[in-house]
Design goal:
Blueprint lengths: L4 E12 L8 E13 L4 E5 L6 H8 L7 E6 L2 E2 L5 H7 E4 L13 H12 L4 H14 L16 H13 L5 E5 L7 H18 L2 E6 L2 H7 L2 E6 L2 E7 H6 L4 H9 L49 E3 L2 E3 L12
The protein binds iron/sulfur cluster and magnesium ion (MG).
The site of magnesium ion has 4 residues, from helix 1.
Length: 322
């Protein structure tokens, strides 16, 4: 069965300034990512900030072109899909409902905007559809003539969801959609997204640095580190039996006072490496407590076995010489 979303050796580099009088350097934001998402699945993507999650999201939306590799929707390269068709099929929900909504427009005109762009229906039909969608996401019709400034953070994110769904897309790319919200509101928005997925047969890619959120919503999870996927497996398996030492460390960090904010201190006192100068071999090796001599030299490829995909020299278990 053709996957609904597929990425093949997806890469994106940026040329960045390294300082005055120094040559520009190449940042590998996303580095050889192969993903495959079946219809109605929810692929969670987790990792610390700077690991390439948002760049990946922008490539899935066709907003950032890849430097190499491709994104396929239903087997078709998105660079070859007409922009309007792509917008019909793939919609975003971004993190910050404060900056992603135009403060001067009314809620109904914000929600109906994709219909305006695609020229669907008359003005009054578009407004009616926008109001119906607002009600579906839990915002009474009386909010239609308000502006975003009159709404709470959770209400604004409901507006962003209504706007994404008003043209009936197949895929929604959610980039940290609950991270700016209070914890109590986060759960409501997550449950709303789950209900909408069922009702509208949606497929989600759900990006978050918060593992608890991903565990709640995703059917499979990709863990990213420095632009690469280091583990990819079914959600229940990942949380029960994390295999990559980085996944294990991320899960352990959930038990710290600031859950989900990355690895506090793995006993190495080392923070996230400079993406411009990634470590050699396995890029996680300076922070890895299970590293072996080959880890600083050999890059571990993402390999599949019965339990999922993992990129680590510990798998498949090698024969020990000692
Ligand atoms: Fe640790 Fe080596 Fe596995 Fe990298 S390849 S995660 S350094 S054990
Ligand atoms: Mg981000």
């Amino acid at each position: 069965m053709t996957a609904l979303i597929e990425t093949k050796d997806l890469q994106r580099t940026f040329s960045v300034s390294a300082g005055m009088f120094k040559p520009r350097q190449t940042l590998h934001a996303v580095n050889g990512v192969d993903l495959s998402v079946q219809r109605k699945d929810v692929l969670g993507i987790v990792g610390e900030s700077g690991c390439g999650k948002s760049t990946l999201a922008r490539m899935l939306l066709g907003l950032t072109p890849p430097s190499r590799g491709s994104v396929l929707i239903d087997g078709q390269d998105i660079s070859k899909i007409d922009r309007r068709d792509l917008a019909r099929r793939v919609q975003p929900i971004f993190q910050d409902p404060y900056s992603s909504l135009n403060p001067r427009r009314t809620i109904s005109s914000i929600v109906s905007f994709p219909l305006d762009v695609l020229g669907v229906g008359t003005n009054s039909e578009r407004r009616k559809k926008a109001v119906e969608m607002l009600e579906r996401v839990g915002l009474p019709a009386r909010y239609a003539d308000n502006t975003p400034g009159q709404l709470s953070g959770g209400q604004r994110q409901r507006v962003a969801i209504a706007r994404a769904l008003v043209i009936n897309p197949e895929i929604v790319i959610c980039d940290e959609p609950t991270s700016a919200l209070d914890v109590s509101v986060q759960a409501q928005i997550l449950n709303l997204l789950l209900d909408l997925r069922k009702e509208f047969n949606l497929t989600y890619v759900f990006i978050s640095h918060n593992l608890a959120v991903v565990e709640h919503i995703a059917t499979q999870v990709a863990v990213m580190y420095l632009g690469r996927v280091v583990e990819l497996t079914k959600t229940a398996d990942l949380f029960k039996h994390p295999r990559h030492p980085y996944t294990q460390a991320l899960l352990a960090s959930v038990l710290t006072p600031e859950p989900g904010l990355g690895i506090p201190d793995m006993g190495l006192g080392l923070s996230f490496p400079d993406p411009l100068h990634p470590p050699t071999g396995c890029s996680f090796h300076p922070r890895c407590q299970q590293r072996r001599p080959e880890c600083s030299v050999e890059h571990p490829h993402l390999l599949r076995d019965a339990q999922g995909d993992v990129a680590c020299h510990l798998y498949p278990a090698k024969k020990s010489n000692t």
